[in-house]
Amino acid sequence: MALPPGGRVLDLGCSKGSFRFQHGAAEELPFPDEMFDLIIANFVFEHTSDFARAISEAERVLARGGSLYMSVPNAKSFEDELYRALFAGGGHRQRFGLETILRAVYAHTGLKLMAFADWPAGFTFFEHREGLRQFTLAVVDVLRRSVNADISLRSNFILTFQKVAGPATDRSRRSARIAAEAR
Questions:
Q1: How far apart are CA 46 and CA 73, in angstroms?
Q2: Is residue 137, in this structure, part of any structural domain at all?
Q3: What is the CATH number of the domain that holds 89?
Q4: Residues 6+ apart with CB under 8 A from 2
């Protein structure tokens, strides 16, 4: 996806950020409608308390024709289970399978899936414990070679969506959502 000249990018969930940043919750983004041409949410949505609201907000601030790149861990993977066990959940509030994330995105937005990829385990959560990371990768490799089971596959999902809905569709969906929340 090529950004238009002067295109705007939102790095959602970038922590302190590499450049200027603005604090806020993914469920209530402090930006006007259709402000960004690209939103990057790299391992963010599993940390949100209300995924439906967060994905709806991402759609709201995404310009028509814009793209949303997201990566999420597969909750059924060895990598995610190990992360949750070692770090008492590690802040993961959502448990995604490919079907559950697609169902939720389609239920709460008009976003269209444009691309998908499985991403193998990298155990990057070991960060400054490179020895432990390499040991874990070695164990995974031994299992793969000895019992022909690769537990690193399908550990993460990478999905790219595009906002194709027009303003009238967006308004009616937002109105229906507000009415449902008021009940």
A1: 8
A2: no
A3: 3.40.50.150
A4: none
**Position 176 in a domain:** yes
Q: Could you tell me the residue range of the domain that residue 57 belongs to?
A: 9-122+152-182
Chain segment 10-41, per-residue pLDDT in tens: 999 877 666 677 778 899 999 999 999 999 99
Residue 55 has pLDDT above 70, yes or no: yes
**Three-state secondary structure along 84-153?**
HHHCCCCCCCCCECHHHHHHHHHHHCCEEEEEEEEECCCCHHHCCCHHHHHHHHHHHHHHHHHHCCCCCC
Number of structural domains in the chain: 1
The residue type at 158: I
On whether residue 56 sits in a domain, the answer given is: yes
Using alpha carbons, list the distances in angstroms from residue 137 to 49, 62, 84, 156, 164.
Answer: 31, 37, 17, 16, 40
| Measured distance CA(41)–CA(58) in Å, rounded | 9
Dihedral of CA atoms 19, 22, 28, 32 in degrees, nearest 10, equals -80
